[in-house]
Known about the structure:
The chain has helices at 54-63, 113-131, 161-170, 211-230, 261-270, 308-311, 316-322, 369-378, 533-537, and strands at residues 9-16, 19-26, 35-40, 68-71, 77-78, 104-105, 108-109, 111-112, 136-144, 150-156, 183-184, 187-188, 195-200, 203-208, 236-241, 277-281, 328-331, 352-358, 381-385, 391-398, 401-404, 408-411, 415-424, 439-446, 467-472, 478-480, 483-492, 496-503, 541-544, 547-551. It is α+β, with helices and mostly antiparallel strands. A hairpin with a 2-residue loop joins strand 13 (195-200) and strand 14 (203-208).
Amino acid sequence: MHHTRNMPGSVIGCTGMRACCLLLVVIVASARADQWLAGDFHQHTFYTDGFDSFDFVMGKNVEFDLDWWANSEHGGKWNRNGIGRHWDDSDVYALNPILGNIASTANHQDMWRWQSLRDHVWPDILRWRLNNPDKRIFHGVEWDVPGHEHCSVAFVDSSGAALSAFEYMFDIVDDDTSREGEETEFGLLYKRNGIRDAWTNGVKVRRWVDMPKQHEDAVAACAWAQKQYDEGKIENGWLIWAHIERSGPWDPVNRRRGYNIEHFRNFNNAAPDMCFGFEGIPGHQAAGIRGGFAGSAVGGGTFGGTGFYSAAVGGLWDALLGEGRRWFNFANSDHHRHHTVGGDDFYPGEYLKTWVYAIDADGDGKHGLNEIANALRSGNSWSVMGDLINVLNFTVEQGDAKVGMGGELTAARGTHVMLSITFASPGKHSDGRIRLVDHIDLISGEITGLVQPGTPEYTKAVNSTARVLKTFTSDDWTEIDGVNVIATTVPAEKSMYYRLRGTDKAPNTKFETDKDGNPLADSEATNLGLDRADEAWADLWFYGNPIFVYVN
Length: 552
């Protein structure tokens, strides 16, 4: 519902002892068109292991009212094009179009993803941009990370060459060597993807190196992306880590390729402008095991559809925020195949959305790729299941200073700051039913500063100061013109961050929430007799990104 995205004003209230005075502040519209925009940046097609054509999936992004998205699917090598025909099909290609080392799958020659990204996906994206000028479509890849699980990567450039170079050099499944030493605008290409040449009885073979060295290659990839951004070789982009708990804790002895907190710290240290978050709310929400997370996942599975690292108050995400790191939480569909035709997924935008506040920096009334990428990096964003809400504004203010999600505010010790929340629900959701928010949690934790590599704290994934500071119900908000308004004050005693989450489930909902309203493990929801999509629709949440308040 696009009419909700440009809010004509915001409502700010003051509360205390349940006495409340409300002030409606109308913000006069300027020439700039700053706007909340919904998107998704992790989805698959016939180009890799998806079950739908490129055009079909792009059309679903439009159908479910997304403003921006990325085609982001696996690296390595694959044997089909975007309409599902094989690259070596002479009825489609009179001349074999495949470059690089020869490889095959299921008796068909593969094309390396560095080539399909550059020579085929890129033209498809340009075509969709031309035919959908009001949408913003990013060029992406789901990076097979050396030593780890996956990562959603997107770059903004003028030719698609940057992403092609990145995938060639750093994807652990891309073992093509045909471009080694090639001179490009990004420097000479080299392989640093967790695989090295080794000699056995005088014969050179390529082998995976140990996982710690593979992790070093992943950090080098992040640093390469940051360098291209710093030097203006790419205009913008991101590396956002995918389904981070799925493989369990990182374990080099048993080759479990998950993520621990020290890895996110390393990535963020190496590339603070490019590595700034993860998909804390994974796709595959209609899978038999929600999110596709088996019992071996960190935490044993998802909690209210959200991974343990984000769902557990005082856990890994809170530990990163307690350092003051600008590290943000996102959601994506990870669409491969729809649940109605035997798959585990919803279509992009059908169930999960990531909303970002795009700043119209040049005042042209439009939102380009750079402005959306900047919005993701800013942290002024939130993610939602099933359109439980379609409006969320969360701000902290003191005097003339006011910041939104991702921002930081400085307050004098011994004073108070005001927290304002406005939210709204769209009415009927994409499954045709109506749901309303039951409660919203305000979560906070102390900011104690960055921890240093090599210290015992660097591998600790807990923040013992994090807690649910307040829980708001309908008794605490006021509805004005379809928008719900909450305002409260908190004392400025220590440097703190504040973040939100909300749900349609009341506390003590059997098999869904505990007595305090926290999400229970989704494995318990099987006791409700629900499965796949029905389970997902029965349990809706949203998560907002943090605001940082520093106290002098």
